[in-house]
Amino acid sequence: MTDRMAGKIALITGGAQGLGEATARMLMREGAWVAVTDVNADGVRKVADSLNAIRPGSAIALSHDVTREEDWHRVVGEVERVFGGLHVLVNNAGVSLAKNVEEVTLEEWRRVHAIDLDGVFLGCKISIPLIERTVKAGGPGGSIVNISSISGIIAGHNMAAYNSAKAAVRHLSKSVALHCARKGQGIRSNSIHPVFVATPILDHHVQRFGKEEAYAKLGRQVPLGRIAEPDDIAYAVLYLASDESKFVTGAELKVDGGISAM
Questions:
Q1: Between 22 and which of 127, 184, 226, 234 could a Cys-Cys bridge form, CB atoms 3.0 to 4.6 Å apart?
Q2: Residue 67 contacts residue 115 (beta carbons within 8 Å)
Q3: Domain containing 163 — which CATH number?
Q4: β-sheet with 88-91: strand ranges across
Q5: 67 within some domain
Q6: Is position 237 within any domain?
Q7: What is the mean pLDDT of residues 103-113?
Q8: What's the number of domains the chain is made of?
């Protein structure tokens, strides 16, 4: 590893598994201190313990419901207390739902938007003041990385709520980027748009077809012929979180194996 995140403090939501866990491991290996959060308190604690076994003191685990404003205030306050500031926010926590507009209930619609969109809004709103203070105290520049989806750009007939929420994350990221630039806060904001990734979000496909066949079926929809691995996305986060992307804001990074080029 190359210490691309040396000196930076990162907060990663949905860190108990999947993309959040892969991102936490990637940023820690590159020198960051990381706070990993999740509603799955036991799961995220195991992730933090495994990171600290590699680099003692590099990680903390926090129980966190991203839909609750009071949870965000508590988590951001704890990050400041333990690490002294914040440079990078990775809004990764999310859920999927495969239902069309007639099938999805209002309760399901609201739940998907609460987690996938409201959680991102709250994260940006509540984290920005701490990131700004940290940057202006003389640290490296700040970065917000919002995990959207290629489904936020390409619609599916049976993904009404998910399409809506992830498309909104894409545009919210741009609004946040322009706001932070206008105020001179030293904070960039970008979104990442993965295609299918080998994480628990695909469990419903795996349960239906078996892992090998499920991944193969999804991979046949992708020009590169396979689904993504978690590190494929984590490397994209690493770029946007690091100072290598210091002139990149308001952008969307598609990590989709070419599917959006079709």
A1: 234
A2: yes
A3: 3.40.50.720
A4: 59-63, 33-38, 9-12, 88-91, 142-147, 187-194, 252-255
A5: yes
A6: yes
A7: 98
A8: 1
At 208, the pLDDT band (50, 70, 90 cuts) reads confident
What is the domain range of residue 128? 9-199+229-255
Place of tokens 């940023």: 27
Band of the pLDDT at 34, cuts 50, 70, 90? very high
**DSSP secondary structure of 107-164:** HHHHHHHIIIIIHHHHHHHHHHHHHHHHHHTT-PPEEEEEE--GGGTS--TTBHHHHH
Contact 172, 146 (CB under 8 A): yes
Structural domain includes residue 219: no
Find out whether 34 and 28 touch, Cβ atoms under 8 Å: yes
Q: Provide the pLDDT for residue 230.
A: 96
Amino acid at 25: R
Which tens digit of pLDDT belongs to each residue from 66-89?
A: 999 999 999 999 999 999 999 999
Q: Tell me, what's the pLDDT at 246?
A: 96
Q: Quick count: other Cβ atoms within 10 Å of Cβ 168? A: 18
Identify whether 241 is part of a domain.
yes
Provide the annotated active-site residues.
Answer: 162
Amino acid at 38: D
Give tens-digit pLDDT for 129-141: 999 999 999 877 8
